[in-house]
Design goal:
The complex is a heterodimer of chains A (259) and B (315).
Chain A lengths: L1 H20 L29 H35 L3 H13 L4 H9 L6 H29 L1 H8 L4 H37 L11 H8 L8 H32 L1
Helix pairs in contact in A: 1-2, 1-9, 2-3, 2-5, 2-7, 2-9, 3-5, 4-5, 5-7, 7-8, 7-9, 8-9
Chain B lengths: L1 H30 L3 H4 L6 H11 L5 H13 L12 H36 L4 H15 L2 H15 L15 H35 L2 H8 L7 H35 L5 H10 L3 H29 L9
Classes of the chains: A mainly alpha (259), B mainly alpha (315).
Chain lengths: 259, 315
């Protein structure tokens, strides 16, 4: 539990600090690649924009995309695993589609989406949710299948309770720990995928100060003014580490309470 | 056994069929027809009609899918927006990606296996902690950041390897390896992040088994148990981890190739995404899916061979 607490505390802290400082920064040519100072704690980038506000903006974008992909994939994962538990061709088709998504890495899928119609946060989220949603469905469906064979489900069905109610009140709560753990692990994947895509200018809309884009602009200055790369990388790694802490903590929690 | 292999092969075909359908439908839905992209705004109705006819856009939907599938299977992959043949570009670029992936997998496999075996010798020891720390750090580091770090240290600091670029094997083996070293190392970090921890877990599981205890009871030194008793039964699981890693690593290869300006299929994919070349990107997606499905298929087959328990029918 400590890991989960620490991770979520860090995530919340990052979120709050970022909310406070976020901005795109104004261009000030007198401050090109200025070193950190009281006014600009992270220094300034190659165009003299305040790095702290840009990095904060990047954190917000990153968190926004990762949290929405995690939620969306959890939803998609649930829907897919419900479909997979049905009989007949629906289940066969869903199963095949879910297995198919296994061979499409999210980065490649996102690039494919970007190749028509251009960049956008929506495309990154879509690619991530499709692949991760399928992942979730793959983990949940054997557990659901097992639960459906249990006597209490048969008993519930025999008493004439509606199918939807059995699903919502009995099955989903029992697979919720797995769902939670999987959804948390998507946070890190999403943070990394989004920043990598933005690094090539293929993530969210151009000119948005995302962590990947800031690092991509700053990499040419890595030798002359390392702080332009150092602070954004530090924040990115911190962000990823907090997300990983949450998901690791959750998975340890589940493995101890379930076995 | 044979029926399992056949079933697995059929599911491979079905997967690829579904990916191709997905690519086709996405392209169709998004761009509908490429005449707006290729022709200028001043194109007359007649010119548009002529273009549409020449691209085969007048044919009904299911038939067009069959055409698409047929042309993919017969390797008629069309041209990129810059007019090169996709097939020949791919033929040039695929070896680069394969070489990169090969070295990266080799590095990370040897490193992870070594670390996992060392760590398993003493649970909760120094190496075990180091392994947990490294796997945490490697997971959190995005590839473009670790590559930047490596470049600063090895290229700018020690001046051992070039910053970016690629020299093919025919320019000599030393220059070839020099250009591939840092990219492979970056990708290996990505692979090792998962492999280390999962290898360690696989070994741990088998160390709990009765046969490990028997080996210990029969007088095998405690330090030798992971290597001599637990490694062999873990191999099938390790192989499937390797397969998963290889598959997810292709996404990482896309990033690494672009950072180091390697002319592989990953950089081609980014180029086609940048130039909004959906048909080339679609072909590339299909090729990547084909490669990954083949990896999964081969891993399953090798698994049956290594661990005959997997091939038996449980039902």
């Amino acid at each position: 539990m400590n890991k989960v607490r620490l991770g979520s505390f860090l995530l919340l802290l990052l979120l709050l600090v970022s909310f406070f400082f976020a901005g795109t920064g104004t261009i000030d040519t007198t401050l090109r690649a200025a070193s950190p100072s009281l006014c600009h704690p992270f220094g300034c980038d190659s165009l003299g924009r305040d790095l702290l506000s840009r990095v904060s903006y990047g954190v917000l974008v990153s968190l926004g995309i990762s949290v929405s992909s995690a939620l969306l994939s959890a939803l998609l994962g649930c829907l897919l695993s419900i479909l997979m538990a049905r009989d007949g061709w629906v289940s066969v088709f869903t199963r095949t589609s879910v297995n198919t998504l296994k061979v499409l890495p999210p980065v490649v899928l996102a690039l494919f989406f970007v190749s028509f119609g251009g960049n956008g946060a929506g495309k990154v989220i879509l690619a991530l949710s499709l692949t991760s949603g399928a992942n979730i469905a793959r983990t949940l469906s054997p557990k659901i299948r097992m639960l459906l064979g249990e006597e209490f489900v048969v008993a519930l069905e025999a008493t004439g309770i509606k199918r939807s109610r059995i699903w919502l009140r009995h099955i989903l709560p029992m697979v919720y720990p797995y769902l939670r753990e999987q959804a948390a692990s998507i946070l890190l994947t999403a943070i990394l995928t989004e920043s990598s895509l933005s690094y090539f200018g293929l993530g969210v809309k151009k000119m948005t100060p995302t962590l990947g884009a800031i690092l991509s602009e700053g990499r040419t200055l890595v030798l002359s003014s390392p702080h332009v790369v150092f602070f954004p990388s530090l924040v990115l790694v911190l962000l990823g580490a907090s997300a990983l802490l949450v998901s690791r903590g959750l998975s340890e929690l589940d493995s101890t309470s379930h076995r | 056994m044979a029926s399992k292999i056949l079933k697995r092969f059929l599911s491979l075909l079905l997967t690829l069929l579904l990916v191709s359908l997905f690519v086709f439908v996405s392209i169709e839905l998004s761009q509908g027809d490429s005449s707006a992209v290729v022709l200028s705004d001043e194109a007359t109705e007649a010119q548009i009609a002529e273009y549409r006819a020449s691209m085969g856009l007048e044919v009904p939907f299911p038939l067009r899918y069959l055409q698409f599938l047929g042309s993919f299977l017969t390797l008629r992959w069309g041209k990129t927006l810059s007019g090169q043949s996709v097939k020949s570009v791919l033929a040039q670029r695929l070896p680069v990606t394969l070489a990169l992936t090969f070295w990266a997998i080799l590095f990370s496999f040897v490193f992870s296996l070594f670390m996992a075996l060392k760590a398993a010798q003493k649970k909760g020891g120094k190496v075990d902690h180091l392994l947990s720390f490294l796997s945490f750090l490697f997971l959190v580091l995005p590839s473009f950041l670790s590559s930047l770090l490596l470049v600063v240290v090895f290229s700018f600091g020690l001046k051992l390897f070039p910053v970016a670029g690629y020299l093919p094997l025919k320019d000599g083996i030393i220059p070839h390896i020099r250009t591939l070293f840092l990219p492979s190392l970056t990708l290996a970090i990505l692979h090792a992040s998962l492999m280390m921890r999962l290898f360690r877990e696989a070994l741990e599981e088998n160390l709990q088994m009765p046969f490990s205890r028997t080996a210990l009871a029969k007088g095998m030194k405690e330090k030798q148990v992971p290597f001599r008793a637990a490694l062999k039964p873990s191999l099938a699981l390790m192989l499937s981890i390797l397969g998963e890693s290889l598959a997810s690593g292709l996404g990482g290869a896309v990033v690494v190739e672009n950072v180091f300006a390697l002319p592989g299929i990953g950089s081609l994919l980014v180029q086609s995404a940048l130039s909004r070349d959906a048909s080339t990107a679609g072909i590339l997606l299909l090729v990547v899916a084909l490669m990954i499905s083949l990896v999964f298929f081969l891993v399953d087959m090798l698994g049956f061979w290594i661990d005959p328990r997997l091939g038996r029918n449980h039902e």
